[in-house]
Design a protein that fits this description.
3-stranded antiparallel β-sheet; Rossmann fold; 14% strand; binds BIS(adenosine)-5'-pentaphosphate; 8 strands; alpha/beta; 9 helices
């Protein structure tokens, strides 16, 4: 039976950064709905083009656009791999849908890792972020978008939703639609709060410790 963890937190709290470490070092399957939607948008699929406009304006895509994709991935893993969900669930309806899609699988939600970061820090991180279009590496230093990726030489870009206007909408959507999920999982005793203003390796060490409790 595989482990299933949710990494939870506001935009810029470091979910993607930590998820890549968990996937590379602990061999978890990292399922990021944001990455899946950006990929769909980059290849120009119908779903991707619909999603792009909503994402760039800081809104959520409709629940049914992501519920089916996540369920299909989880079913495909057949309990054989540990799973880290990043950016999902993001609404109460998605949390209920996740419960339904886990029924009859080898997975339960083992832990919700809730990353906490102050808004002022989130803002600074989001406005400094560059991502590699080839390998997906995330950079937090104010490197130039013209510089190649330090990991693979690919092109670095600024995400379409990494600007002050979209960030303010993303934070509002997070508070109104996503934060209530924490109570849902707290009532089940699944939430672990992680101070995510520390250096990346320290946060990763806390996360690894929590995940190791669920062998
Ligand atoms: P998504 O891609 O999930 O974005 P998000 O939740 O807004 O989170 P971010 O990717 O912005 O931040 P992060 O927490 O991953 O931080 P990161 O590690 O990059 O979703 C994007 C959009 O897709 C949504 O707005 C929505 O439209 C749509 N969507 C996705 N899922 C959906 C769903 N389930 N339902 C409906 N719609 C959905 O780090 C940020 C920066 O900080 C980086 O530069 C990084 O280098 C730096 N950094 C990280 N950790 C540290 C640290 N400890 N110290 C210093 N700097 C750090």
């Amino acid at each position: 039976m595989g482990r299933l963890a949710i990494i939870f937190g506001p935009p810029g709290s470091g979910k993607g950064t930590q998820s890549r470490l968990v996937s590379d070092s602990l061999d978890f399957c990292h399922l990021s709905t944001g990455d899946m939607l950006r990929e769909a948008s980059n290849i120009g699929s119908d779903l991707g083009l619909k999603a792009r406009e909503l994402m760039d304006s800081g809104n959520l895509v409709p629940d049914d656009m992501v519920n089916g994709i996540v369920a299909a991935h989880i079913h495909g893993l057949d309990g054989k791999k540990d799973v880290l969900l990043d950016g999902y669930p993001r609404t109460m309806e998605q949390a209920y849908a996740l419960d339904r899609s886990l029924m009859g699988t080898q997975y339960n939600v083992n832990v919700v890792l809730s990353l906490t970061v102050r808004d002022s820090v989130l803002k600074e991180r989001i406005l400094n972020r560059k991502v590699c279009t080839s390998c997906g590496s995330i950079f937090g230093v104010p490197v130039s978008v013209l510089e190649p990726c330090g990991n693979c030489g690919g092109k670095l870009v600024v995400r379409g939703d990494d600007n002050l206007e979209a960030l303010s909408d993303r934070l509002q959507v997070y508070r109104e639609r996503t934060l209530p999920i924490l109570n849902f999982y707290s009532d089940r005793g699944l939430v672990v709060v992680i101070d995510a203003e520390r250096p990346v390796p320290e946060i990763f060490s806390s996360i690894s410790k929590e995940l190791s409790k669920f062998y």
